[in-house]
Design goal:
Order of helices and strands: HHEHEHEHEHHEHEHEHEH
CATH class: Alpha Beta
Helix content: 40-55%
Shape: globular
Number of domains: 1
Length: 304
């Protein structure tokens, strides 16, 4: 890996996280009640922030094509719904997604760096990332080397992220921390600081393969890292909770938290995303209830 512009020695590691204080803040976010026009606006916003995702060994080109169609047509019986922000697939499926989406504004995100484990030599990770970019990916979702991080080799993790960002160039890089394997909020904060300073455009909680995934506690901790970085540098970094967010209620709680910690500037899919495969249908059911006064069965919405 080559030397990078950013230096590991400049990473501003934080002090110990007050876990009790975090829990108290989260409990306040969870008691907020959003109703009427504000709820409709929030649900609309959530739909526009979803990275519709399929990351299974059984993925086929037809499954990816169906998901890409749904990304553009969430519910055709109701005009005016947004599209999702992006679809997220394996590198081998990027060309299939590109074929379907073509000139659509929907971004194509690809996981890379030996997703989900990250257990591969850097040369393999480099090839993995370059393959996805050459196939037409707009965004790269990389996993960090959690084994190296947990062994205390933080500079290795920093250098690896910086090197992958160099390969990405202008393509946006989302760095997945896999917070369920980091054990403590202190570790989550340190990994967030490393990723941000190494050049991440987004920091992302999870692969969706490990539980717990995107808890509000870890998302809160990562949002605070983003806020502190912005306060120091004036540079915005995006946030993507992924894994375990399957209800509109939880998604709205996350938006309340983002607004209070980072402000309205982050309430756009340029800076905030949900990584999800099932969230869209729950949000659609809630949205249709708000605008029509009636619930529609899950059978009214496509699975993929």
């Amino acid at each position: 890996m080559t030397a990078q512009k950013n230096q590991f020695s400049e990473v501003p590691f934080s002090t110990t996280i007050d876990k009790v204080g975090v829990e108290e803040r989260i409990s306040r976010f969870q008691t907020r009640s959003i109703k009427g026009p504000s709820k409709i606006q929030g649900l609309f916003m959530v739909l526009s922030m979803i990275d519709l995702t399929t990351l299974e060994g059984k993925d086929t080109p037809n499954k990816v094509r169906q998901m890409c169609y749904k990304a553009q047509h969430l519910h055709d019986v109701y005009d005016g719904l947004p599209t999702v922000a992006a679809v997220c697939v394996y590198p081998s499926m990027v060309n299939v997604a590109r074929e379907v989406l073509k000139d659509s504004p929907i971004k194509i995100a690809s996981v890379s760096t030996a997703f989900p484990s990250g257990q591969a030599p850097f040369e393999v990770k480099k090839i993995d990332t370059q393959f996805a970019i050459d196939a037409g990916a707009d965004e790269i979702d990389m996993v960090i080397s959690r084994g190296k991080f947990l062994a205390g080799e933080h500079e290795f993790v920093f250098d690896e992220i910086a090197a992958i960002k160099e390969i990405c160039g202008s393509k946006r890089l989302k760095v997945i921390l896999e917070t369920g394997e980091l054990a403590t909020l202190d570790q989550v904060r340190r990994a967030s600081d490393i990723a941000i300073h190494a050049g991440a455009d987004f920091i992302k909680t999870s692969t969706g393969k490990i539980q717990p995934a995107a808890t509000m506690q870890v998302t809160f901790t990562m949002l605070m890292a983003i806020r502190d970085h912005f306060d120091r540098t004036g540079k915005m970094v995006g946030m993507k909770p992924a894994g375990g967010i399957s209800t509109s209620k939880l998604a709205l709680h996350n938006l309340v938290m983002v607004n209070e910690i980072l402000g309205e500037a982050w309430l756009t899919n340029e800076w905030f995303r949900f990584g999800a495969s099932s969230l869209a249908n729950d949000v659609l059911m809630q949205y249709m209830k708000q605008v029509t006064g009636k619930y529609q069965s899950a059978d009214y919405f496509t699975i993929d």
